[in-house]
Write a structure and sequence with these properties.
Elements (H helix, E strand, L loop, with lengths): L1 E6 L2 E4 L4 E9 L7 E6 L5 E7 L5 E3 L7 E6 L4 E6 L8 E7 L17 E2 L3 E6 L1
Parallel strand pairs: 2-11
Antiparallel strand pairs: 1-3, 3-8, 4-5, 4-9, 5-6, 7-8, 9-10, 9-11
């Protein structure tokens, strides 16, 4: 089984930057796509970005142009560089990994991910 541990969350000012990291351990040879999701209090867990094994990326419209997802292979560490942060970016950010390549539209792919981290809190002050 794959274990994921997120780090790098914290409190930042509007317009600031933060870099999240997700370290994968366990059965990492089977990991294909990885992604980031976030969940605000009282709301559903929404897709933020994903990255394929080969480095192809997709972004939610709300973060496109501000966030950058990347990964370090074969160590399997995924990053989320967040710039120009807004209050609506506040939430718990979760790292996810899929054993099979993602299919379909990325915003509907939540159930394709097999492993999830416990999350890291990101708070953007207003």
């Amino acid at each position: 089984q794959v274990q994921l541990v997120e780090s790098g969350g914290g409190l930042v000012q509007i317009g600031g930057s933060l870099r999240l990291s997700c370290a994968a351990t366990g059965s990492i040879d089977g990991i294909n796509d990885m992604g980031w999701y976030r969940q605000a209090p009282g709301k559903q867990r929404d897709w933020v970005a994903d990255i394929s094994r080969g480095g192809n990326t997709n972004y939610a419209r709300s973060v496109k142009g501000r966030f950058t997802i990347s990964r370090d292979n074969p160590k399997i560490t995924v990053y989320l560089q967040m710039n120009s942060l807004k209050p609506e970016d506040t939430g718990v950010y979760y790292c996810a990994a899929a054993r099979a390549p993602r299919y379909g539209t990325p915003d509907t792919a939540r159930h394709q991910y097999d492993a999830w981290g416990r999350g890291t809190q990101v708070t953007v002050s207003s």
